[in-house]
Structure prediction request, 371 residues.
Amino acid sequence: MVRRAMVWCLLCLTPVSVWCADLPTPPSQQVLRRDSSGQWQMLMQVMVCKLETRTGTVTKKVPETKTVTEVIDGKTVEKAVTIYRDVTETYAYTVSIPDYHTKAISIDVASIKVFETDGRRIPTEKLSSRVTGETLVVVSPTDTMIPDAYASLFKPGTMILTTPVVQPALPARPLPAATVAPPPTPTPVAAPSPAAKLPELPKSPAPLVVSVSREGTEKLLLRRLSESTAPVTGMQTFKKGTTKEKAPVPMTQTVRLIESFAVSGKHLRFAMNEAKDLPLERMKERLAREVPAIYTADGDDIDPFWLQNLKSSTLVVTGPQLPGGCGPMAPTSYVSPPMVMPQVAPNAPVTPAPGIAVPVPTAPVPQPRKS
Prediction:
């Protein structure tokens, strides 16, 4: 009871920057290590959506005509009637299932910056003493320190790395003039050595950084930020003597996307450190303003591996998977058994299926004759 009360106090007193649209894309969690040759590597969890074909069944009612014998006014009369029997049809559909595997990217530590959670720089030469084995770190989406609203989620001692700088490709140089020379003697090529097996990260994906706030009386609002940057070209008008000309001007375009999801509180679970399943009604009181939180990426419980660097006051939310990952797909094909069409005798009465109205023929309406 005392532990839970302390957690509530931490939620109330923890200073958190106001969540706003000016915040950049949230950071991610990756694993930093040095391989056996001393090369620095970033281990990333890569998701691949695998397509699988499955089959299902559906039951339909199919009409079938039967001849029955009835005695009417002492005479035996044969009559055709229609009955409906259940037929099971098989159909195929495709589902998209996430498959996670580890990918290693070599990095040059001289091209990145390393920070403490309070913003102090960490000299890159100290990384060797700070990284033991596979170390979970926070990676900024830019080449600057992450804002306090994000840094406040992680406990002191967590290293925050900037995105490695990608060097632009060198301009192509003209090829030398071709010379006629005898073909070189082929040299035997040694078979490549097998790649070292990478340690597998948890199959559970790394959680997302979102904001949570109250939306009305029954729902909570989840907001996710993302942005993409790409080079673009704009046209500008220049004066050239007495005329005007347009010339292209290179620019960089950044598109910021803020997605909001209103979710019923009954579909969300809240936790903080060891305080599990915090009551929803108390959470509604505390979430009158937006606060950053850690949110599950696949709708399932978050693996403890991804929670090891979080503060005890960080809000962890479990709920439905947000759009953007692997998910169900529409049926692709149907495989139906051959259907036998009913053979109805001429002028034979047909018994309709329950709930199906048979149209009654009406006499044609006479049209006035044109003079």
